[in-house]
């Protein structure tokens, strides 16, 4: 074979390979950095009961907010067609600080919590499989639950609930929709860089249980607050096709 034919054959192979970059049957594993940015805050604290007696008293002006956090994320994407792909995405659960707001702002950080938020999405990629820059839109579902819910600011606990008070917390899990936009850029046939932005209309109810040991004995105070988290999540990643 002449050098000219070898060159033409090589170019043809490269073009054919590029055309398979994000085509039907392709799988991509991506690893990157999540930035989870809550955009809302908590409703006023409601005292449900004291010593088992219903109270249902709202502490006007009280509030809290969830701070942003960073974590490592991973995603697996499979292309069913040249344009439609399914994706499973998860991350190491980020640890969020819970800051006091309203009349609780003076206490600073009240505690922290870990958020688990794996998601499944369907994405539509614009352009052809061989296109280097491919924007996309996605829609999916997420299941969020929380662990390590801790209220460790004893100044807050003792000032608001009594000098011997000790508090524990729990947060309700939920299913939530995920709205997603982003783009991938093909560095080679197999390697990609990507950036996506997701929005989750997410809220949870946090229940606070306080044991207050006083002269009259132990009094259990149960209270709750609805926390609107509504995070915007960015994912900057590097992907490999196989």
UniProtKB/TrEMBL annotation:
Keyword Cell membrane: no
Origin superkingdom: Bacteria
Principal place of residence: membrane
Example GO BP: transmembrane transport
Signal peptide region: 1-21
Entry GO CC: cell outer membrane
Keywords: Signal
Pfam families in the record: OmpW
Protein name: Outer membrane protein W
Natural source organism: Cupriavidus basilensis
């Amino acid at each position: 074979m002449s050098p000219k034919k070898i060159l033409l054959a090589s170019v043809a192979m490269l073009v054919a390979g590029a055309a398979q970059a994000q085509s039907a049957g392709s799988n991509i594993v991506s690893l990157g950095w999540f930035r989870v940015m809550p955009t809302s805050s908590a409703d006023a604290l409601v005292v449900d009961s004291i010593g088992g007696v219903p109270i249902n008293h709202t502490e006007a002006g009280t509030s809290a907010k969830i701070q942003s956090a960073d974590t490592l994320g991973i995603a697996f994407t499979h292309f069913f067609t040249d344009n439609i792909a399914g994706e499973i995405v998860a991350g190491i659960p980020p640890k969020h600080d819970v800051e006091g707001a309203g009349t609780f702002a003076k206490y600073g950080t009240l505690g922290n919590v870990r958020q688990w938020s794996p998601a499944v999405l369907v994405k539509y990629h614009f352009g052809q499989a061989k296109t280097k820059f491919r924007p996309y839109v996605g829609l999916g579902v997420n299941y969020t639950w929380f662990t390590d819910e801790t209220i460790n600011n004893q100044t807050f606990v003792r000032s608001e609930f009594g000098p011997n008070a000790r508090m524990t917390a729990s947060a309700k899990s939920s299913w939530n929709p995920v709205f997603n936009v982003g783009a991938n850029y093909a560095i080679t046939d197999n390697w990609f860089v990507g950036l996506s932005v997701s929005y989750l209309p997410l809220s949870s109810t946090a229940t606070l249980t306080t044991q207050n040991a006083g002269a009259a004995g132990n009094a259990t105070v149960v209270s709750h607050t609805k926390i609107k988290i509504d995070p915007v999540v960015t994912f900057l990643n590097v992907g490999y096709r196989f």
